[in-house]
Amino acid sequence: MSYIPLPLPDRVQLSPEASLQQVQAFRDYMRRRHSVRDFSPDPVDRAVIEACIETAGTAPSGANQQPWHFVAISDPAMKARVREAAEEEERAFYAGGGGDEWLTALEPVGTGPEKPHLTTAPWLIVIFAQRYGLDDGQRHKHYYVPESVGIACGMLISAIHHAGLVTLEHTPNPMKFLNQMCERPENEKPVMILPVGLPSAAATVPAAAKRKKPLSEIMSVF
User: Fold this and answer.
1) pLDDT tens digits, 10-38
2) Residue 130 CB neighbours (<10 A)
3) Can you give the pTM of this predicted structure?
4) Is 13 left (phi over 0), alpha (psi -120 to 50) or beta?
5) Which CATH number belongs to the domain containing residue 105 in this structure?
6) Is 145 a member of any domain?
C-alpha cells in the first residue's frame, strides 16, 4: 500500500479558553470512573457494546496494523466456562503462585480467587493482542503490539465509562484457555477480560483505589 496524503478530514481545535474548559470537564468526568467488582445482572444492549468496541478500534497503532481483536460474550454458559477456568488459575495464584510481595500488594484492593463478576456482568469483553499478522497464510511482523493494544484498552475503558457503565480490568495469568474457548488463532494472545455492565445497588470500591498520585508526582516540566 502506497503513501497517499489526505487533507486532515476532521478538525476539533478550540479556543484556548474552550480547550481548558473541555479538558477540565473531561478530567472531572474521568475521575468518576471506578473499577467495580459488584455488577447488576440488568442487561446492556448489544449496540452499546459494539459502539464501545468501535471506539477502541479507532486507536492509533504501530504502522496502523491495528493488532487487536475483541470478543464480546453475553452467553451465560460461556461466561460460566470463562469464570470456571479463570478461578482455577486464580486459586493457584492466591495459593502462593503469585509470590508474597505481589499478594501483599493486592491486600488493600481486597481481591481473591472468587470472580463472581465474570458471570453476573451481562457482558465480558476479551481483548486479544495479535503478536503477528496472517494474510493468506503468510506471516508478517507487527510492531509496537503491547503499546498499541494498551492504547486501545484505555480508549475502550473510557468509552465504557462514557456509556454510563462500569468495568473491571481482569487479567488471569495464564489465559491460554481463552484462545480455544473464543475460537481465536495461535497468533493472538489474550491480555485482558473486561466484565461490563451496571453497578449493583450495593457496589463498593476499595478505599485504597481512591488514592491517586498528585500531578506533582506524575508530571515533570522542562
Assistant:
1) 999 999 999 999 999 999 999 999 999 99
2) 20
3) 0.94
4) beta
5) 3.40.109.10
6) yes
